[in-house]
Amino acid sequence: MPAPLRRRSSRGCQVARIARENMPSPYPEQSRARDDAPRSPSSLSLRGLDGLNFLMADVRDGLGPFLSVYLKGTQHWGSGNIGLVMAASGVAAAICQIPAGLLVDAVRAKRLLITISGLLVATGCLLIAFLPTLPTVFAAQLGLGAASAIIPPCLAALSLGVVGHRLLPARISRNEGFNHAGNFAAALLAGGLGQYVGVIWLFYLICGFAVASALVVLLIKPKEIDHELARGFESAADAVGHRSPMPFAQLWKKRDLKVFLIAVALFHFGNAAMLPLAGQVVARLHPGMAVVALSACVISAQLVMVAVAATVGHAMRKGVGRKKIFMVALAVLPVRGILFSMTDSPYAVVVIQLLDGVAAGIFGVIAVVIASDLMRGTGRFNFAQALMALAVGIGAASSNVTGGYVVEKFGFTAAFLTLTAISVLALLFFAVFMPETRPASRAIVATHVTS
Questions:
Q1: What is the pLDDT of residues 285-304, one digit of tens each?
Q2: Rounded CA gap, 285 and 278, in Å?
Q3: Does residue 192 lie in a domain region?
């Protein structure tokens, strides 16, 4: 072969070899997907994410306990019917978790999904306010439950699609800060409206937040949403050929995913029933103080969560591993359980509940980041969030059932110590079986995500 042809052939082989080496693998088991190039979303899109997380904090949880207060105190419903409609929302949310995750993974109209979900919540609130009959309230609660299953994965998907994998930890930390600030503002407004204007104005408050969120989502520029990133793939700009999501059978073989989901379930198994049980203790021994104490618990914990979310984001930017951060949250739970078992003072309950602000504040940030790490390159990021939400529901339900049963048989102290033991089990399980998921390359600098 002539020398010029040999040189051209050699250069061609080198180009082909470099292309093969840099081609992104569809699944992380085959090779760790390389980091996407740093993204530079506009300040308008970032402000849109801030506003959405602030407004949706109150919207995605629906009416919550305020509905039972309204139906009992204003409409004079029986406890059985109240329990039925309250359960309807939870059942609908549980049924819709996995379909919602698959839907968010599959569609590109994520802004439209947020808008529809917000308007669905607004419609449900208005129906309950103006037609508080059993069929109407039951149907509205089903709609609110479905919307609550769609909103969290959609917010996370939009965040990942806008900022990318490298900047996601900082973005999720900021999201959670605005989320808790929104919860705090909504709690203050709800308390003021409920006390001085009337409980029915809480429906209008949530309706207003829902409509505002449907407008704020328009601030996020559609061209800045990379839908390949939003479902857990690498950037569309790096795509080579057609990629399909990881098959479910192969996904379920991921040991780290199963360990993570079990740890999430155990976390909420040990955590969920503590505050309700503490509220029962206060209500039994200090009549008239329970509502005030629980309101103070919620408000103070939200303030702590704002600070904790920012601290977690800072720690991740400095290179602290996800596992270490999650273990801090797990370690807080046994301390909280032991302290609850030692007191019945409403003031002490409020102080101890600040620890829940630490644990829940960490979980809200780090769980989404770990899910993103585990699902990177699979195209199943939002499906994994749905699985995580199911694990949360299973753990919380198990906590409340177990706590209530132990209280009936052995008393409140035994119930708190049982939840403490489960919390210790969660900590040991996670410490032994869960590996670190943070990319090993470097600490991430992500200042422009918050600009």
A1: 777 665 567 677 778 888 89
A2: 11
A3: yes
Residue 345, exposed/middle/buried by CB under 10 A (0-12, 13-18, 19+)? Answer: middle
Tell me if 17 is assigned to some domain. Answer: no
Find the angle CA(362)-CA(98)-CA(56) to the nearest 5 degrees.
50
Task: Give the integer Cα–Cα distance in Å for 242 and 19.
Answer: 16
* Residue 317 near residue 166 (C-beta atoms within 8 A): no
Alpha carbons 301 and 180: distance in angstroms, whole number? 9
Give phi and psi for 235, each to the nearest 5: -60, 145
pLDDT tens-place string over residues 171-192: 999 999 999 888 888 877 877 7
Report if residue 32 sits inside a domain: no
310 with 346, same domain: the answer is yes
* Statement: residue 32 has pLDDT above 60: no
CB count in 10 Å sphere of residue 395: 24
Q: Are residues 197 and 251 in the same domain?
A: no
Residues spanned by the domain of 176:
43-223
Residue reference for tokens 């409140």:
412
Verify that 52 and 199 share a domain, yes or no: yes
Q: List the CATH number of the domain containing 214.
A: 1.20.1250.20
Amino acid at 406: V
- Between CA 106 and CA 112 the distance in angstroms is 13
Residues 118 and 216 in one domain: yes
Judging by beta carbons within 10 Å of its beta carbon (0-12, 13-18, 19+), is residue 99 exposed, middle or buried? middle
- The first and second tokens of residue 262, run together, are 């079990």
4 within a domain of the structure (yes/no): no
Instruction: Please list, in sequence order, all residues whose beta carbon lies within 8 angstroms of the beta carbon of residue 293, skipping any fewer than 6 positions away.
Output: 279, 282, 286, 346, 347, 349, 350
Question: What is the DSSP code (8-state) at residue 63?
Answer: T
d(CA 292, CA 300): 12
| pLDDT above 90 for 362 | yes
